[in-house]
Amino acid sequence: MNAPLAAKAFQARSISLASRYGGRTVLAIGAHPDDVELAIGGMLARLSRESARVVIAVVSIPTDFATRHAEAQRAAEILGCELRLLVDDGCKRIDDIKNYQLVGMLDALVRELQPAAVLTHSAHEFHRDHVTVHQACISTQRLKPFDFFHFNPTMCRPVPVEFHPRAYVDVTDTIEIKMAAIEAHLSQFGSRGLEAEMYRDLARLTGRMVGVKYAEGIDVGRMLLA
Ligand SMILES: [Zn+2]
User: Fold this and answer.
1) Which residue among 34, 153, 188, 217 is buried most deeply as judged by most CB within 10 Å?
2) Please, what sign has the CA dihedral across residues 78, 83, 87, 90?
């Protein structure tokens, strides 16, 4: 089989997001504003378009609360998602949240939303806040049998981190929405001159792994194949 035919066959047998999560709730949890957009913005935009209720939960905002809250709200609107800010009464660093409090906040969210899928940071991260959130999310699995995925490490400047996606989402139709959501974080990608375009490059490279133009890679923590 030649390469284009192989790619077509691969896609034809894929699990569609709409059939799995359409009409259901998907919860994406990030430590800080912009993490979720960087990692899986294209996937969330697709889910929203394909009739899932998508909730982005940001644990806390470490600095510049009003600006970063407004940017996160704008980015969520661009993706067609709802935003929840777990620590919503001012700036707080994740290091200053006790672990039982973090687990309690995430438990409450899962109990309220009853998600069909939860996506969060992986254990393979260079940022300790991201690892802390990953570990707190691990324990929410005891509450309900949702699909559990881990997303690509998020960073504003590239750092080598071990992460191997084992599932891929075609985001060819939503890559521009993702880039617009990233650019909504003006305080990060405007004034600080950080490199948003590397996420387009990453999506292009990830897409080549599975024969589509742009893709996002996720790892599977738990998934029921019915
Ligand atoms: Zn972060």
Assistant:
1) 34
2) positive
- Burial class (CB within 10 angstroms; exposed 0-12, middle 13-18, buried 19+) of 171: buried
Ligand 1 center from residue 113 Cα (angstroms) = 23
Q: What residue has token string 């802390």?
A: 132
Cα separation, 5 vs 3, in Å, equals: 5
Q: CB atoms < 10 A from the CB of 165, how many? A: 20
Instruction: For residue 137, report the distance from its CA to the centre of ligand 1, in Å.
Output: 15
Residue whose tokens read 């891929």 = 168
Measured in angstroms, how far is the CA atom of residue 3 from the centroid of ligand 1?
Answer: 37
Q: What CA–CA distance (Å, rounded) separates 142 from 66?
A: 34
Q: pTM score > 0.85 for this model?
A: yes
